[in-house]
């Protein structure tokens, strides 16, 4: 079970996922903040503006890759659940997006990645030096934006998330080398690497519109639970889009132990565990190796266990919304939770 990031003393109501008549789309979820997202795009473009021609060229390339804008959506919806969208909300959304984009640019350099979401990365087009400097520029723009308007609470929230992301990445590297990752440490890693930023989004949204510490803490924990569920869903993709059949094996190729495999190894006999870990340790793995590990994980209940954990975390996130008045924004957040655990990519 995931280690608790906070007690949940937020009433005894239970919220259920809103089940629409058709499939939930991201466009449906974003509808309550559609106008605000349009305004945010302009706001974010201005926050990234530079008088240096090369910087502006790279910036335009980044802005052209629209992305899903899930993080700004989370900030805006969280603000509407707790009150109303303010200028501080837009600054919080821009701060999150600036720092998040900077970490992605730096990650591509570290990982030597040439593509992100199917398009060329910054380092692939402009080489590492420019990519690193561009990431630094984005970090500085985020810091200056917060300081210019004395948004110290927002800056503290997002800066702490970036710290946790770095620590989580380093802990994962350490554990990948040793292959001694247990479930508690796995949840520590994904809490820091993934959930910290999603929690920062919901926290920034709440901070931007209310001083109520109960509301802010409730939204913080909601984001943490949602982030954990999001990462488990990502980990399940490694075993195939439908979580059965032909596993993809990307995490396995990188020797990453994720929840399905951690559970399966825990439930196996020592000899079987050694056999599977021997495959995981191999520098290169064949399709047959990937299929062997995939079949082992499924037979030992790793996929089913990860699904249960993901569903439990999503239910916890949903229950935290029970104390808020029913609004379009609250329903959209509930649907976003459902979308997170049922998405196919």
Keywords:
mainly alpha; Farnesyl Diphosphate Synthase; two-stranded antiparallel ribbon; 15 helices
Evaluate the radius of gyration: 21 Å
Strands of the biggest beta sheet: in what spatial order? 1-2
Rough shape?
globular
Reported for the largest beta sheet, the result is: 2 strands, antiparallel
Characterize the structure shown.
By secondary structure, this protein is mostly helical. It has a single domain (31-342), classed as Farnesyl Diphosphate Synthase. Helices cover 70% and strands 1% of the residues. Strands 1-2 form a two-stranded antiparallel ribbon. A hairpin with a 2-residue loop joins strand 1 (115-116) and strand 2. It starts with 25 loop residues before the first helix and ends with a helix.
Compact overview of the structure:
This protein is mostly helical and 345 residues long.
List the helices and strands and how they pair.
Blueprint lengths: L25 H5 L3 H14 L5 H12 L5 H13 L4 H25 L3 E2 L2 E2 L1 H27 L3 H27 L4 H25 L5 H25 L12 H4 L5 H8 L3 H12 L5 H13 L2 H18 L8 H15 L3
Antiparallel strand pairs: 1-2
Helix pairs in contact: 2-5, 4-5, 4-8, 4-15, 5-6, 5-7, 5-8, 7-8, 8-9, 9-14, 9-15, 11-13, 11-14, 14-15
